[in-house]
Structure formats: structure tokens, C-alpha cells
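Weekly sync notes, structure subgroup
Attendees: PM, AL, DS (notes)

Item 1: joint prediction request from the bench team. They want all two components modeled as one assembly rather than separately. Inputs as received:
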Amino acid sequence: MKTRTKRRTEPTRSGSFFSAPKATLVDRRRGEGYARVWLAGVDGARSARPGQFIMTRRLGSSALPRAFSVLGVGPGRVELFVKLDGLLRELLGSVPLGTRFELRGPYGVPYEERIEPGKRYVLVGGGSGATPLLFLFDRRPDLVSDLVLGFRHGGADDLFPDLDLVVEATSGQRASDRLADVWRPGLGIIACGPEPMLRTVGRRYLGKPAVYVSLEARLGCGIGSCLGCSIPTAHGTRRICRDGPLFACSELPWLR
Amino acid sequence: MAALTVHTAPFELATPIVLASGPAAFGQELLEALDYATVGALTTKTVTPRPRAGNPQPRLVDCPCGLLNSIGLENPGFDRFVKAYLPAVLDLPTRRIVSLAAERPEGIARMVGRLADVEGIDGLELNLSCPNIDDIVIGSEPAIVGSFVRAVRPEIDLPLLVKLPGDTGSLIASAEAALAAGANGLTLINSVHGLRIDHRVGRPMLHRKTGGLSGPAILPVALACVFEARRAFPDAFLIGTGGVTDAKSLVEMLAAGADAVGIGYGIMANPRLPMDLAVGLSGWLAERRLESLEDVIGAAHRGGFVVP
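Output from the run, pasted for the record:
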């Protein structure tokens, strides 16, 4: 039987049976605590739009994949900006080029489909929360009035030499402080970063129109099925991975 | 893939791969990723009489070789399930097992009674083992397990499975109570009660503190439960669930005595896993020139497989 012969050889040759799309680590630039990482060979992920994320793990691993927001896409490759902590982030930071990954996505609703159209926005990022904002700034500069990216230490400076980052260790300022300097009525806000930063934004701009936050949680499946990332909203329970990651602050009464 | 068919009363399944209750929700999201021809049956997310919002974040915490979850039976409630979700479940090109839980036997019996006339449900699973809630009994008390099954059995002719916890020490007694009360089979096991503490601050990492451990970490626990249950109940239909993530662990679970194998963590990690498992299992059978799964199921009780 033809099919049986095929089935017989396929699994034994590879030793594992994963059919998920595979990607290869082709380039990486490291700053202190952060890295920009390029993965190639990912057909589906190239369609990623700002705000969307991919799920990835080492090829052949049985670990639960991690979600990474997409920084950009190019011919045959997807770029990530990762904080080098946590197991897989360390793996992305220290494994040799050529390492193979299982990668699926993109998932999540693109920011552009969620925000109020016809407005300009201040983009406020903290740490690796800068990732989707940089992607949005690259794709839709017309939507952006200011880009405010905060970091606790200066490690990301070398990775984005053209940007004026807000580094708390040297300036004493946080991203939310700089936001207060540049925001004026009529502008919207899109914030992505650590929860304390999002709470500050939620509290200070309470009741202002077009204020959005991009939420993060440990995702399970990434496709809206496992309910590991459910959160309460004013409209009922929503999934960060499938219904988000962007939510209007007005939907999140707990974010104060 | 004829070799993968399972013929064990009360089920006939196209493959032994069952989507465990929970991570697959009501099967719709997986339609985008998964070829359902490789799935023997979908078990729905557990449905309760009233809607449940589930537990606050964080709900998932990484563990070595697994995941600690605390979803808390988030579900739309029985009425909304029947109206808004069940029709799409019935359209899925696989067998469908509806998972139910309630505080009291009458609660489950009422839901079961309302499903009695629905065409296209292939089985029911009573979830008597969710570790993540306070108000629904845990299936560790054989008398309580028996009372739930006795309440449900007269309501419906469908195959009835009882999902039991693997970490209570009373598995065989509870299983015996379930089968004596008319259950056709058992789903073993649910996730295992566990805890992680953030070492930096000394506090539990899950909002609800303890949760359910799943993934490869619990494979040996599930295997032991299935092995012991098969020894005690040679004729019961068993779905072995816990830590199966590849064809090798799938074969282990079958050899321990499972007629079918549930995947929960595995489908979260890889929505295409059933396809990989089906290909891997077919190849594995072909390599050993085994004609059917009957040669594999329970092999660990018979001195193993004939190795060519």
C-alpha cells in the first residue's frame, strides 16, 4: 500500500511528528536585556499587521509556545523585539543562528481594525511593549502624532539608534510622564507595556475618547479556544488573544 | 487511516484521538487549523446550569514540563450553550461528547434530560473532577459519584462517561461506583491539583492560588491511573487523558489500556497535533506490521507488543 510506505518512513526519519510551520533564526541583534530577532521561512506570519502576534517554540519541543508581538515583516521573514528574560526569550537570545522554531500565526485583531478612524494617536510603550507600536508607526505614520517609548535602562538604545527613547535610569522620566508632555485634547492614545503603566494611562485619561491599551497575559493556545487569557470587560468576558489584544480603556473598568 | 479506527462499545471512533474537555472549547476555533478527520471525538468545554465567568487573571502559569491552569469552568451556561453553541458543535465532522458539571445530581440530570432528544450527540461526559472551583463536588467520594450517575442514567440512552480526578487516592472506588451506577466508561484523568509560588515575593502565582497541572509532567500519573483502571475494569471504555503530546506518549497511553486518548495541553500547544498524532501512529503501526489498534490497546497488561 502506497500510503502506508510513506507513513512508515516519514516519522522515523525526523524522530518527531510536528507539522506546524517551521521557521529558522536567521539574524539577531542584541542590546542589553533586549534583542531584535529575525525568523525566516514563515509564510503565514508575513501577513502580520501591527498588533498581531505569533506563537513560537523550539522545533520538536513539547513546551507551550510563547506569544510574541510582531515588530515587522519583510520578504520571507518576520521580526520580533524580545526582552531577554524567561525561558524562551533566553533561547531566542542565546541559541545559534540557524536554530529552528515552530511558528504559527499571526493571531489577534490588528490595531487598525480596533481604533477609532480619522484620529491621530500618541503611541506609548514600555519595554518590549514598544514592539507593536513601532510596527504601527512604520506602517501607518499618518496615524501617529508622537511615539513615546520608555525603558528602565538604556539597553534598547543600540537597537533603535534613530529613536529618542525615554530611559528612566538616565532621565528620571517614565513613558507616562512624557505622554503628559505631548498629549493634547483631540489626540487618541494607544498604550502597550507593563500593567502599572497601563493603569497609569487608564487613570489619568479616564473618560477621554479613543484611549486604548494593548493587554498581555500568558496565552495558552493563541487562537481563542482555551480561555486562558479571558478578562472581564464592560461587554462581558473577552479573550486577549482573539478579541484583543487592544481594548478601549472605557471597556476595562478594572484598569485604574 | 483504516487502521486507526476504534471499535469498543459504546463508541466507534475514526481515530483514538479525542479532544479533551476544555482547551478545545466548542471546537469552532480549531476548524481553522485542524483536519477533523483525524479526530475521533470532540469533548466540549464543560457546561454548567448557569453561566460562569471563570477565574480572574492570571489563569495560566508555566511549569517544568507542563502548565498550571485556573480557568474555573468559564462557560456560557446551559441555556445559551444549547441555543448559541450546540448547533455548531453538531455540525462538526467528528463525534461529539458533551461535558457537563453541576453542584448537585439534579442539576446535571435536568441538563441531560433536555439533551435527550437532540440528534447528533454521541456521548456525555460528567465532569466530576474540575480542580479549579469550590462549589462543585470533586469526584473523590465514591458515594457522591454514584449519586450523580444514578441521577443521570435514566434520563438518556447515550453513552455516559465519568471524568475522574487522578490525584485523590480513591480512583478505583470512585470508578467502581460510576460503573455500577450505569456509566459506560471513564475519562482519566483531569489536571492534577498544583501550586506555584513566585519566589521573588513569596505569593502564589495564580489568582486563585492553586490550579490544575497538565502537560507532559502528568503523563506518568495518567498512565498509572489508566493502567490500574484497566486492570480493575477490563470491559469499561476508557479515555486516557494527561500529558500526551506525541505519537510515543499516545502509544504508551493505549498500551496502558486506554481505548481512546484525550489531548488537552497538547492541543493548546499545537492546534494541529491530532494530524501529527494520526500520521505518527499510522507509521508506528506500519513499522511494527500491526493491523489494528486492538493489538496496542492494553498491551502492557499482556506482556507488550510482538516486536518484529
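Discussion: The radius of gyration of chain B is 18 Å.
Action: AL to compare against the crosslinking data before next sync.
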